[in-house]
């Protein structure tokens, strides 16, 4: 119910959101419209401004056109007239003011004086005006007179012209008459001569009068011509001014027409814009209406939705309220439940505690039992175990048939190995066999139990046995990238010690020594060439110790690396050919772990001896002489002694010949008692090494096959074959002596053999004898 209510609430919220969105949209549209109408108004304004500009332009043009002299003059006169009118108005205004002031009673004599002055000035001005007016009238009169006179002169001119014409006519008539009379008088010579004489006298007078009248006539004619010229010029001026006036008028008309057109255009534009605006507004309005309608519809839908939701909401509210009540009561219930649960839990914890305690007690008991069983198992298995490791074929093995692989393995049994020797397959069974592909890690895993047991106070020896080049050093030291048992063992010890640090204090120290030609040298000492002696502890404990053997306390992997490096450098500086030297000497790394249980005060000491033995290969009896022979004899002796000791130990002989070699003597306390020993027999798989491989594997099998349990007389009688004996019996495959030893067969970790087992083992040995020829 809560969920559905929440859902409904969500839906409601969504709808409200939608409504809000639509309202916002509407508002946005309204805003849009407003802005659009504002825009249109702005446009109208700009058009108006443009119109004004055009009108101004027209008036400017007009003023420019009025630039002709007459118009300018006229305009100037009009302006002057206007100015004068203004002046007059001002003067009249002043006058009125003065009059008003005059009428206003004034006691101030300064004002009165001023008034009087002003009146005086006024009267003066009036007088001046009167005079100017009179002068103007006079001038007008004069102008009138002059015009009258001009008219008179014109009239007189006309009269005189007429007179002259008459006179001319009269004179010409008299001239004709006189000529006629002359002619008649000619006919009457005397009389005529007199008459001629009088006429001649009279004609000179007439001639003079004629000349005078002619010159006067000419002057008048000139005057008339001048007047005519003036008239003509004036007419021309009038005509030109009329022409310009007509032109101006035409231009004005043109401008007016243009103005009219512009105005019309503007009006049209405005009309169009108005229409457009109206149209846009209408459109927007209709759109808004449509949207509004949609919104309304939506709203109506929402409303109906809401209406349908309401009953559901009511039931939900009801449910919610009941739930709320339940929730309110919930803490109490919860507390109650919690209280009871807590009680139950504490009870359960108590139970678990007690069972735990019981279990722990049982576990401890089991642990002790297991340890006992383990020790028993180890005891039964034998404290001495033998592993085999086959190295891979390397480049050093060369190529061809010599480098062919001669070693094969059993897919079902990791303890079995087959060697093809001279065309025959010989099988060997050890405690475990590592094939070439086995990693350092895998090898170490099989070894690590031994290593950790030295923390518990056990002494441990791990030997690498085998011919030179079979991988002893690789297994013990390894490479920097892939370290061997030595480094891994120390790392493991460090981590084990760290994990026990809560209860135990441990100290780990290391020594490194070398046995060469039966002399012991300290590889970590300041004088490595010094020969060390092995001595019995003077405390009468029967323990051995080597006075002067350097012991380094190590706490980390770095410390170990330093120790190894130091030992290596010492070994290298002491020999001309390290490889050869190392193959003819035994290298020992002795790790001592001393522990103190802080609660009980119990002290433990465990020793881990990691030995890289000298090469087990046989040196040809003939040919070897001098130092090489001596070396070979020493190696042979010490390896035989090691075999003897292991044999004696495993067969529990009363006497163990530890003193037969430096190596066994030094390791005496790490080989006897509860000590654990591992022999790692290294072999090469190459065809060319098969005879050495065979020897090594025989050695391994012999060490392994020494039985535990009650010591038999025969076993007691038997002795470990020397290296020479191994070589002698090589042709037989298995030394003859071993055939006499019971329990010689290849069973792994078995106890005292039963009769049945014995016969089975005899058969297997016989089989081996047959295969090896
Ligand atoms: P040894 O010490 O017995 O004389 P080395 O340990 O020096 O023999 O080994 C001889 C060569 O074989 C070395 O180059 C070594 O790296 C190589 N070798 C030995 N065992 C292995 C192995 N398991 N895997 C790879 N290389 C090995
Ligand atoms: Mg080596």
From TrEMBL:
CDD domains recorded: KISc_C_terminal
GO biological process: microtubule-based movement
Keyword Nucleotide-binding on entry: yes
GO MF: ATP binding; microtubule binding; microtubule motor activity
Major localisation: other
InterPro entries on file: Kinesin-like_fam (IPR027640), Kinesin_motor_CS (IPR019821), Kinesin_motor_dom (IPR001752), Kinesin_motor_dom_sf (IPR036961), P-loop_NTPase (IPR027417)
Any one Gene Ontology cellular component term annotated for this protein: microtubule
SUPFAM superfamilies: P-loop containing nucleoside triphosphate hydrolases (SSF52540)
Stretches of the chain forming a coiled coil according to its record: 5-188, 231-283
Family designation: Belongs to the TRAFAC class myosin-kinesin ATPase superfamily. Kinesin family.
Job of this protein: Minus-end microtubule-dependent motor protein. Involved in apically targeted transport. Required for zonula adherens maintenance.
Name this polypeptide is given: Kinesin-like protein
């Amino acid at each position: 119910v809560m969920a559905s209510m929440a859902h409904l609430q969500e839906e409601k919220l969504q709808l409200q959101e939608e409504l809000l969105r639509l309202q916002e949209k509407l508002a946005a549209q309204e805003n849009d419209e407003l802005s659009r109408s504002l825009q249109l108004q702005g446009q109208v304004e700009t058009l108006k401004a443009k119109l004004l500009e055009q009108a101004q332009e027209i008036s400017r043009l007009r003023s420019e056109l009025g630039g002709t002299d007459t118009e300018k003059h006229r305009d100037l006169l009009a302006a002057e007239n206007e100015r004068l009118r203004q002046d007059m108005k001002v003067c009249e205004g002043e006058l009125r003011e003065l009059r008003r002031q005059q009428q206003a009673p004034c006691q101030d004599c300064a004002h009165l004086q001023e008034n009087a002055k002003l009146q005086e000035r006024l009267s003066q001005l009036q007088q001046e005006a009167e005079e100017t007016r009179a002068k103007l009238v006079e001038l007008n009169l004069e102008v009138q007179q002059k015009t009258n006179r001009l008219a008179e002169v014109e009239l007189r001119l006309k009269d005189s012209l007429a007179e002259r014409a008459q006179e001319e006519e009269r004179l010409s008539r008299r001239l004709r008459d006189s000529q006629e009379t002359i002619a008649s008088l000619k006919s009457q010579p005397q009389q005529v001569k007199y008459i001629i004489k009088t006429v001649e006298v009279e004609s000179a007078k007439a001639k003079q009068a004629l000349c005078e009248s002619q010159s006067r006539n000419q002057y008048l004619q000139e005057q008339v011509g001048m007047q005519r010229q003036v008239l003509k010029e004036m007419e021309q001026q009038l005509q030109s001014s009329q022409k310009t006036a007509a032109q101006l008028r035409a231009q004005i008309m043109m401008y007016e027409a243009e103005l009219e057109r512009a105005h019309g255009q503007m009006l049209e534009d405005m009309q169009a814009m108005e229409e457009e605006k109206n149209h846009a507004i209408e459109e927007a309005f209709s759109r808004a209406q449509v949207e509004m309608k949609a919104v309304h519809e939506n709203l109506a839908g929402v409303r109906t939705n809401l209406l349908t939701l309401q009953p559901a909401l009511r039931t939900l509210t009801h449910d919610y309220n009941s739930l709320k009540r339940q929730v309110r009561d919930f803490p109490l219930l919860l507390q109650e439940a919690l209280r009871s649960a807590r009680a139950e839990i504490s009870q359960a914890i108590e139970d678990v505690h007690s069972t735990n305690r019981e279990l722990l007690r049982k576990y401890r008991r089991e642990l002790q039992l297991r340890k006992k069983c383990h020790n028993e198992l180890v005891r039964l298995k034998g404290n001495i175990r033998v592993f085999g490791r086959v190295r891979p074929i390397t480049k050093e093995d060369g190529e061809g048939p010599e480098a062919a692989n001669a070693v094969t393995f059993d897919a079902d049994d990791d303890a079995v190995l087959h060697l093809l020797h001279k065309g025959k397959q010989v099988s060997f069974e050890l405690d475990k066999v590592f094939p070439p592909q086995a990693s350092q890690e895998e090898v170490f895993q099989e070894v690590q139990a031994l290593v950790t047991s030295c923390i518990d106070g056990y002494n441990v020896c791990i030997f690498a046995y085998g011919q030179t080049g079979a991988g002893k050093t690789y297994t013990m030291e390894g490479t920097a990238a892939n370290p061997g048992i030595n480094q891994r063992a120390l790392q493991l010890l460090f981590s084990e010690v760290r994990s026990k640090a809560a209860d135990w204090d441990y100290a780990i120290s290391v020594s490194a020594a070398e046995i060469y030609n039966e002399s012991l040298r300290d590889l970590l000492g300041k004088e490595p060439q010094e020969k060390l002696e092995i001595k019995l502890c003077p405390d009468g404990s029967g323990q051995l110790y080597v006075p002067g053997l350097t012991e380094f306390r190590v706490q980390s992997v770095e410390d170990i690396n330093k120790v190894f490096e130091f030992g290596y450098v010492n070994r290298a500086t002491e020999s001309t050919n390290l490889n050869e030297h190392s193959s003819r000497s035994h290298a020992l790394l002795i790790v001592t772990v001393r522990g103190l249980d802080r609660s009980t005060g119990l002290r433990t000491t465990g020793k881990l001896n990691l030995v890289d033995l000298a090469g087990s290969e046989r040196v040809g009896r003939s040919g070897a002489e001098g130092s090489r022979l001596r070396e070979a004899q020493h190696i042979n002796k010490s390896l035989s002694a090691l075999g003897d000791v292991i044999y004696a130990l495993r067969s529990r002989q009363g006497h163990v010949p530890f003193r037969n070699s430096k190596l066994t003597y030094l390791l005496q306390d790490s080989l006897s008692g509860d000590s654990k020993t591992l022999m790692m027999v290294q072999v090469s798989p190459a065809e060319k090494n098969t005879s050495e491989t065979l020897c090594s594997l025989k050695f391994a099998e012999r060490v392994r096959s020494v039985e535990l349990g009650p010591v038999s007389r025969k076993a007691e009688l038997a002795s470990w074959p020397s290296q020479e004996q191994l070589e002698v019996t090589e042709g037989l495959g298995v030394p003859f002596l071993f055939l006499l030893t019971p329990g010689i067969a290849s069973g792994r970790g078995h106890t005292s053999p039963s009769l049945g087992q014995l016969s089975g083992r005899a058969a297997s040995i016989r089989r081996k004898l047959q295969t090896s020829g």
